[in-house]
TrEMBL record:
Keyword Cell cycle: yes
Catalytic activity: ATP + protein L-histidine = ADP + protein N-phospho-L-histidine
GO cellular component, one term: membrane
EC code: 2.7.13.3
A Pfam cross-reference name: Response_reg
Native organism: Beggiatoa leptomitoformis
Main location: membrane
Keywords tagged on the record: ATP-binding, Cell cycle, Kinase, Membrane, Nucleotide-binding, Phosphoprotein, Transferase, Two-component regulatory system
Protein's name according to its UniProt entry: histidine kinase
Length: 731
């Protein structure tokens, strides 16, 4: 009874064991060691190999493993039976019922329990997926090694944890001067001149991909130090992250950059020397010009001279002015290159500004037999806020060139707002044009494009200064030109509207003969007697008492003793310069409120701000312009000038004539004339109006008053008013 119970328990345990084996994903077989025939196969074995349980019971292990011979199997089983090994593992190829073969891993184990018959348990695992992964990994490693070794770039594999160089290609060995065996014993700190702390910090940035590019200095086996640029990023190798680094030797590039920087510093030093030279040269030239232009202005005011003498003086003055403009161009260029130019924006009457410029160049054009057309494209503000001096300088340069390089045809000056609220200026001529190869050079200093016959006038600085001033004002200049047909220059700059505007009356220059009130004293300080003589010649006839000093010390002594009402002081003098003299005078209580006006030809070296900081109230550049000097005297001395018969010559904004005056003045015009003038004014043809009025005056001299009146309106661009007058005359 006990034997039956034991057998029943054994069978139960076997069934439970088989149930467990059926849940395993590997194929499990049991066979006898003498016949190799199967007596058990689990569910996975049936599914994987494709045989039924019945078929398996007629088969042995050798029928599933074609590559396994009887002898090989026997040797392995002997090792198990003799307990030389507890299990045997090997890899081979198995074959399914459909003849498909696949790689497998086989485990064999010999089992004998008590006196029961022994058997062999065989576990066969399909390792196809692992084989595929391993094959792909091998291929990847082969490609990696091929890339790592065959590419000429220097490559290193570094452990971020230890800093050890775990791999290096042949290019790295050649660069650093180590064999492969030697370099793999090195740490990155052995070749990087950075401190270990710095290196660790950089590797942390690289492994976390916060930074990928680095600049280092690496030490070679020879001891040489090379500048290198390193790309370094993380790479996963065998489950751990390493740093994959590509090294570029940039030593020669660094050397070239240093040479370039050195050359740049030399060039900048040379440029500074040139700038200093130009500034000094302009100072030396402006000083004698102060005497020439000063005396020319004194003589222009002398009514005892003949007309011929006045003409000669005018020639001297214009020649001096022309030379001064050339010097100013050189000075402007030097200041622009040294970035010392500042814009001084003020409110001014824009329409008056354009009228003055247009009238000037209409005259120049007429003298050359050219037409000059002013073309306002859009409504133009009456007043704007800008640097009037610099804007005038830009337009004068461009219009001068247009007139100078045009032999026939004309010049068109166009102004208007664009959609970005930028003020656009355009100057177009029908002149000689510019060759394409010259266009790139015309904005360079001392370059003059175009016909050689036109190059003698000027130094080639105008367009360079214009270009840089426009950029300083926030704009950009453009040019389009056809050789033999003409050129078109245009630029746009942001301009703000002024908050005021009134119609202005231009008054002819009035001669100042003196001032109201008691006599005032002026201390003139300059180391050149010629400059003192010019100021004395200008101011003494007006009733001023002139005191002279030749240096700063003499100035302080005379100012403290004589207490002048105003001081005109040169800034550059021997013994004591004007700056120090002004600073010391401002410490004397009696002189703290005395107006002091600085005068100097060295406006590049000693800017306006420096003189103001020293204690001056204002500044005048040499050569001194009489109008500027007298205007400052009026302001700081609070005086009213006395004039010799002032004469208003024209109204810029003309009041509308009363209807009665219109009828009387226009009564002499024929209907044909009024209709033609109306048509010309409708078209905006100013030159046509002027020509028509000249014809009318020639044919009807008695209409001189009306033709002069209408010509003045045309020159002031009052085209709409002329048209309205012609309409009224027709009614």
């Amino acid at each position: 009874m006990s034997t039956k119970m034991e057998l029943a328990n054994a069978l139960l345990e076997l069934e439970q064991f088989k149930t467990i084996l059926d849940t395993i994903l590997d194929s499990v077989f049991m066979f006898t060691p003498d016949t190799y025939r199967f007596f058990y196969v689990n569910r996975e074995g049936v599914q994987r190999f494709g045989y039924s349980q019945t078929e398996f019971m007629q088969m042995n292990i050798l029928s599933l493993i074609p590559s396994l011979t009887n002898t090989q199997l026997e040797k392995n089983l002997i090792l198990l039976i003799e307990k030389q090994k507890t299990f045997i593992r090997f890899e081979t190829t198995a074959q399914c019922k459909d003849q498909q073969q696949f790689p497998v891993e086989i485990y064999l184990q010999y089992i004998q329990q008590n006196s029961e018959k022994p058997y062999i348990v065989s576990i066969i695992r399909d390792i196809s997926e692992r084989y595929t992964t391993e094959r792909q990994l091998r291929e990847k490693e082969e490609r990696y090694h091929q890339f790592f070794e065959t590419n000429r770039a220097i490559k290193l594999i570094i452990s971020p944890a230890t800093g050890i160089i775990e791999d290096a290609n042949q290019a790295a060995c050649d660069f650093y001067g180590y064999s492969k065996k030697q370099i793999l014993t090195k740490k990155i700190s052995d070749i990087n001149v950075f401190t270990p702390e710095q290196i660790k910090e950089e590797m942390t940035l690289a492994i976390t991909e916060q930074r990928l590019y680095f600049n280092f200095q690496h030490r070679l086996a020879s001891g040489d130090i090379r500048d290198v640029e390193v790309y370094s990023g993380p790479i996963l190798v065998n489950g751990k992250y390493l740093l994959y680094s590509i090294v570029h030797d940039i030593t020669e590039r660094r050397r070239a950059e240093k040479d370039l920087q050195h050359a740049k510093e030399i060039a900048e030093a040379a440029n500074r020397a040139k700038t200093t030279f130009l500034a000094n040269m302009s100072h030396e030239l402006r000083t004698p010009l102060n005497g020439i232009l000063g005396y020319a202005q004194i003589l222009q005011r002398d009514k005892t001279l003949s007309t011929q003498q006045h003409d000669g003086i005018d020639i001297i003055y214009r020649s001096g002015e022309y030379l001064l403009n050339l010097i100013n161009d050189v000075l402007d260029l030097a200041k622009i290159e040294a970035e010392h130019v500042q814009l001084y924006e003020t409110d001014f009457q824009f329409q008056l500004f354009l009228t003055e410029i247009t009238k000037l160049y209409q005259l120049h054009a007429t003298q050359k037999g050219l037409s000059f057309t002013f073309n306002p494209l859009t409504y133009l503000p009456t007043g704007i806020k800008a640097d009037e001096k610099r804007l005038r300088q830009i337009l004068v340069n461009l219009l001068n060139n247009a007139i100078k390089f045009t032999k026939q045809g004309g010049v068109t000056f166009t102004v208007g707002y664009d959609e970005q609220q930028m003020m656009c200026f355009q100057i177009e001529d029908t002149g000689i044009g510019i060759a394409p190869e010259e266009l790139e050079k015309i904005f360079l200093p001392f370059q003059q494009g175009g016909d050689q016959r036109y190059r003698a006038d000027g130094m080639g600085l105008g367009l360079s200064i214009t270009h840089q001033l426009i950029e300083l004002m926030g704009g950009k200049i453009h040019v389009r030109s056809t050789l033999g047909k003409g050129s078109l220059f245009w630029f746009s700059i942001p301009l703000k509207n002024a908050t005021y505007l009134q119609s202005s009356t231009i008054v002819s220059p009035q001669i100042i003969t003196g001032y109201q009130g008691n006599s005032l004293s002026i201390l003139v300080v300059d180391d050149y007697w010629e400059n003192r003589a010019v100021l004395q010649g200008l101011l003494k006839p007006l009733g001023f008492i002139i005191i002279e000093a030749s240096n700063g010390l003499e100035c302080i002594e005379k100012a403290d003793k004589l207490r002048p009402d105003l001081i005109l002081i040169d800034l550059v003098m021997p013994t004591m310069d004007g700056f120090e003299a002004v600073r010391r005078m401002r410490k004397i209580d009696a002189l703290k409120q005395t107006p002091i006006i600085a005068i100097s030809a060295s406006i590049f070296e000693l800017p306006l701000e420096a003189s103001i900081e020293a204690g001056c109230n204002s500044f005048l550049p040499k050569p001194i312009q009489v109008e500027d000097l007298l205007d400052k005297l009026r302001v700081f001395l609070n005086i009213q000038w006395q004039y010799a018969k002032p004469k208003p010559v024209e109204n810029i904004v003309m009041a509308e004539s009363p209807h009665r005056r219109t009828k009387i003045v226009l009564a002499g015009l024929s209907n044909i004339d009024t209709n033609e003038l109306r048509e010309l004014s409708t078209r905006g043809d100013i030159n046509g109006i002027l020509r028509k009025l000249q014809i009318i005056e020639q044919e009807h001299p008695h209409l001189h008053e009306i033709t002069q009146y209408l010509q003045e309106m045309a020159r002031n661009f009052q085209i709409d008013e002329i048209r309205e007058l012609m309409i009224q005359a027709s009614t």
